[in-house]
Amino acid sequence: MNRDRHPVSRGLVLLAMLPWLLVQGAVAADSLVGQPLRLLQGRGEQALLLPTDVAVHEGQVAVVDGGHRRIVLYDSRGRYQGAFGASGDDPLQAPVGLDIDPAGHIVVADRGTDRILIFSPTGQRLHAFAVPQRPIDVAASRDGRELFVTTNRSHEVRVYTPRGRLLRRWGGNGSGPGEFRYPATLAVLPGRRLAVVDVFNTRVQLFERSGDFVFHAGSWGVRPGRLFRPKGVAVDRRGRLYVSDSYLDVIQIFDPDGAFLQVLATPGHRLTTPTGLAVDTDDRLYVAETLANRVSLFRIAEP
Amino acid sequence: MRRARPAMVLLAFWLLGALWPGQPLQARQPSPKRECSICHIMWLTDFKRKGVKTLVPYEPRPVVETGRQDVVSTERMCFSCHDGFVLDSRFVWAERKHLHPVGVKPSPDVHVPLVEGKEVLPLNDDGKIYCGTCHSAHGVEWDNKESPIFLRAENINSGLCVLCHTNRAKGPVSGNHPLHSRPPHPPEALLAAGGQLGNKGGVICQSCHRVHGSRQKKLLVLPLAGSRLCTTCHDDKKRIRGTRHDMGAMGINAPNVRNETAAHAGVCSACHVPHKATGPRLWARPRPTGMDMISSLCRSCHDAQGPAHDKTIGRQSHPVDVSITRVGIRAELGRWRSRIERLAGLAAPVPLPLIDRRGNHARRDGRVTCVTCHDPHRWAPPGGQPMPAKADPRKLEGHGRNSFLRLPHDGRNRLCSNCHRDKPAVTFSKHNLAITATRTRNVMGQTVTEAGICSACHLPHNGRGPRMWARPPGRGAGIEGLCTSCHAEGLPAAKKQTGKHSHPVHVGLDRLPETIRPRLPLFTRQGGRNPQGSEVDCATCHDPHVWEATHPGSRAGADPDVEGDGRNSFLRVAAAGESPLCVRCHADKALVFGTEHDLRITAPRARNGKQQPIAASGVCGQCHTPHTPLAGVRLWARTPGPGRDVLESLCRSCHRQEGLAGKKVPEKLHHPPRRVPSNAGRRVGLRKQNLNPPVYTVDGKRVPVGRITCPTCHDPHRWNPARAEAGDGRRHEGTVLDSFLRHATTEGFLCSDCHGLDSLFRYKYFHWPPSRKPHPLYEDLEPKSGRARP
Question: Do A175 and B15 touch (CB under 8 A)?
Answer without folding.
Answer: no
